[in-house]
Amino acid sequence: MPAAQDNEFVLREDQGTIARVTLNRPKAYNALSLEMMRALTRTLEAIGQDTTIRCVIVEGAGKGFCAGHDLRELRSRTDRAFYEEVFETCCQLMSTITHLPQPVIAKVHGIATAAGCQLVATCDLAVAEESARFATPGVNIGLFCSTPMVALSRNVPRKRAMEMLLTGELVSAPVAADWGLVNEAVDAEALEERVTAYAEAVASKSPHVLKIGKRAFYEQLDQSLDEAYRHTAQVMTENMLARDAAEGIDAFLEKRTPEWKGA
Length: 263
Known about the structure:
By secondary structure, the chain is of the alpha/beta class. It is 49% helix and 15% strand. One of its GO terms (biological process) is fatty acid metabolic process.
């Protein structure tokens, strides 16, 4: 069912325990204007507080997923304060996705370039049409994709990330899948089915456990091996003390479907 909309540029529709968030500037290839990034951040923050939602799908209206920042908006101003606001807002948006308790899946068609590619890389999972293309083309227009580089370099091998950043060339969806930028590249007719399958699989799990696991995954990434093991040992202890761990293990042993309590 449709949820209360933040504004016309970001649409939310809840389907049971799955929230669909649509970038809705199709004529601009869903370019991330300052207003749109703020609205998307607010929408995701609201979802993060909604305990009925267990998974989020982010997609784009029209012919493409997202073309990155709104270049016309960027050129409409020349003051440093405005540019700082734009890029800090973008970073806040990406951080919101990473810290959201629910897993986020990107459903990609058409193009995902610059900050749009960053958005895909930031999402926890991503599925793309085989015809979709990805790029960090800022270098072509004199604006190196430095913030997209953060998410990109944490998803694909270093030299592949540098290849995209230094050349600005488009990468096909099958190549993006091979590099690890997306989970799968599928036929256009299968995109909705595969994204829904991922979302339903995720949504069937304990929301409390998903929150614990997603947080721990990103926390341990930048830790040393020994630090990561110490940290995740504590996380598993915390997890084991949760009611949903007891319920899940008991259900497995008793060969029945678990009834999650969300705690």
